[in-house]
Specification:
9-stranded mixed sheet; 3-stranded mixed sheet; single chain; alpha/beta; 2 domains; 11 helices; Spore Coat Polysaccharide Biosynthesis Protein SpsA, Chain A
């Protein structure tokens, strides 16, 4: 058994495997195994892997269960101390594994960690999905050091510090295998989007830390499965965000937070409508109906979990700060507002 399993979940991503898998192999650590889990691709990804990378272990899922179920099925078949959930559209760099594992080995309370994530197309800038570590505000809106909404910062070394964060991106998440399974892995009901935030919140509720390690660096294309303008993505983001709030908020915070979040979501929905994005408007509507329809089920899930007051949540409204107060950069937010 290898200490680390780097697991790439693939769905119709032959071109990414062809382009990026060789760099993953070239920069692999001695104690790490590379595995490709295929999510019932309909392109020729599987034949490509068998013909070109016969030495790479290939796990074939029976159906496409999205990011969450796809990884859950695959990781139940893999023994390792640490898993690395790695998107197929990522270019890794030399020594990208070792610093993260050294950091996690130095502190058993670290459950998950992510590297510095920069854009593949503009390597001087942070990439949307993770940047220099993820956070949420008090209403569940995610943002990152290096990325607030669509504002992407240039990497000038301003985030070269090891730091505790709220969530590590699923694009490249290092996680202790034992804790992954102990907490039930990713939530199958999420399918895709925000499932890593939900997992990190559950890990934090269990008393563990999520970290950012700048000594590891990767380059991410992003949007390889769903484009940023996808109404399907809008639906999943709004639905899953409400679900993770319902599951993880501490007692006494649920009703007020979700009620206000509903109001903010409708503001966003009507903004979509005014901009002519009818599909996105209806996606928010469907997300709310889905959440309400499944509320009894979500309450049952909540009762099986532990909810605590955890650190690294931004105690202001990032929407107001960004769009009304014009706080464009993470460094413009007050550190005292994170608790």
């Amino acid at each position: 058994m290898k200490k680390v399993a780097v697991v790439i979940l693939n769905y119709n991503g032959k071109e990414f495997l062809e382009k990026f898998l060789p760099t993953v192999i070239a920069n692999n650590a001695d104690y790490s195994e590379i595995i490709v889990a295929d999510n019932k691709s309909t392109d020729d990804s599987v034949d490509f892997m068998r013909n070109n990378f016969p030495d790479i272990r290939l796990i074939l899922n029976d159906f496409n269960g999205g990011f969450a179920t796809g990884y859950n099925i695959a990781l139940r078949q893999i023994e390792a101390d640490y898993y690395v959930l790695l998107n197929s559209d990522i270019e890794v760099t030399p020594n990208w594994i070792e610093p993260v594992i050294e950091l996690m080995e130095s502190d058993e309370s670290i459950a998950a960690c992510q590297p510095k994530i920069l854009s593949y197309f503009d390597k001087s800038k942070f990439e949307y999905a993770g940047a220099a570590g993820g956070y949420i505000d008090k209403y569940g809106y995610p943002f990152c050091r290096g990325r607030v909404f669509q504002e992407l910062e240039t990497d000038n070394g301003q985030y070269n510090d090891v730091k505790e964060i709220f969530w590590a991106t699923g694009a490249c998440m290092f996680v202790r295998a034992s804790l992954y399974h102990e907490l039930g892995g990713l939530d199958d009901d999420f399918f895709a989007h925000m499932e890593e935030i939900d997992l990190c919140w559950r890990l934090k509720n269990a008393g563990y830390k999520i970290m950012y390690c700048p000594d590891s660096k990767i380059y991410h294309i992003g949007g390889g499965t769903l484009p940023k303008s996808s109404a399907r993505k809008t639906y999943l983001n709004f639905r899953n965000n409400l679900s993770l709030l319902m599951k993880n908020l501490p007692k006494g915070k649920v009703f007020g937070t979700i009620s206000y979040r509903f109001f903010l979501d409708w503001v966003a929905a009507f903004k979509f409508l005014c901009d002519g994005s009818f599909a996105d408007f209806f996606a928010v509507t469907r997300a709310h109906f889905s959440f309400l329809r499944h509320l009894p089920y979500l309450k049952k899930k909540r009762r099986k979990l532990t909810q605590n007051k955890v650190s690294q949540i931004y105690q202001k409204n990032i929407v107001f700060k960004h769009f009304l107060e014009k706080k464009k950069l993470y460094n413009e937010l007050e550190e005292r507002d994170f608790s």
